[in-house]
Amino acid sequence: MNKIALISAAALIALAGPAVASQKLAQDKACLSCHQVAKKVVGPAFQDVAKKYKGDAKAEAHIVGVIKNGSKGVWGAVPMSKQPQANDADAAALAKWIMSL
Question: Which of 18, 57, 67, 84 is buried deepest, with most CB atoms within 10 A?
């Protein structure tokens, strides 16, 4: 019985690991200055971004492009500036995480 509980706990930690790591990456790269997971701040909530692009096979690539190059007029009047502090790997990890929400 204890083995089952231990294995279950390990599996939950393993599944939660990428989400926690990506939220930390979002914090480290200053994404959370303008975005939150579930609430609009300056920019859209990450959950709203995921909802907008759900089912789009090119969504992650699009989000990477927005992170790297910025955008304007997509979510209102406030533009998103490019984020040079996020390298290609960081941008890809963030896009994957956002789309998982």
Answer: 67
